[in-house]
Amino acid sequence: MLISEFARKAGLPVDTIRFYIAKGLLKPDRALKGGSNPYQLFKPEDVTAARMIKLQQKLGYTLGEILALNEEYRAGEHSSERTIEVIQLQIERLQHRKEAMDAALAFLLGKLDWIRSGKPGPAPRLEDYER
Amino acid sequence: MLISEFARKAGLPVDTIRFYIAKGLLKPDRALKGGSNPYQLFKPEDVTAARMIKLQQKLGYTLGEILALNEEYRAGEHSSERTIEVIQLQIERLQHRKEAMDAALAFLLGKLDWIRSGKPGPAPRLEDYER
DNA sequence: TATAAGCGTGGAGTGCGCTCCATGGTCAAT
DNA sequence: ATTGACCATGGAGCGCACTCCACGCTTATA
User: Fold this and answer.
1) A67-83 as b/e, with b when 16 or more CB fall inside 10 Å?
2) Which residue is nearest to nucleotide C7 (CA to C1')?
3) Which fold has domain B1-75?
4) I want to staple B38 with a disulfide (CB 3.0 to 4.6 A). Which of A38, A123, B25, B32 is the partner?
């Protein structure tokens, strides 16, 4: 498929797609050579790849990190060992982030309780929830 | 305290502190007037405020959002009603983010299982984990 | 009093992640 | 053959969150 259809399916602006291609995050096929079709051609897997990038961004990765991660992933594509390591690394970082959020959540909920109960004793201290 | 001591206690570079002041996120006292001390003076609560900013950033808020949130918070400082609303809003957004992370985590763990078990059946699909 | 450390201001620069635009090539339909 | 939609490239610009620098003033210490 051509870039505009791909962009629609991926839910991203065309410019962003091109930006990702320039960064090496997406690698559409090229059909130039002879002189007929100088357009970039996208496969259905590329849509999945684009979705994956968006997901990874939501998880707090920069495009640079995503590129590195995905390249490592590709490098070990035929080694389950390596793939498992990469996935485990992602899971680990994700869990760290979740823990930070849990701490923040606990703090906010603690504060809510404190206010609701008429503020007895000292206010919950942020420091007590940080690790 | 003066800015450098404050920066040390807050765990942020002096330049960043000044940047936050310029943005209205921090409001140190001013002791100029007569002509003696033209320096910004920070109170211990300001350290807490700075930590709070860092926390909010970790939770994915932009400085603009943090400013708005904190101002609303201050505006309703003497209304428990309002304070509770603001905190609940933060909790809600936080839980949304957590859910997104849980979905990602489930996807990654699913993939791990699939690889470990010798890849029977189709690979876990990202779409099945998105909401 | 000289000097050095610290402070404030203004402005430029940086890296990231886009976003927009001008130019020009390609292609399908008329 | 012309039109119009789509494509590619290169480069400029933008908002965010800093970061760095030059300048000049203030204050503590020698």
Assistant:
1) bebbeebeeeeeeeeeb
2) B39
3) Multidrug-efflux Transporter Regulator; Chain: A; Domain 2 (1.10.1660)
4) B32
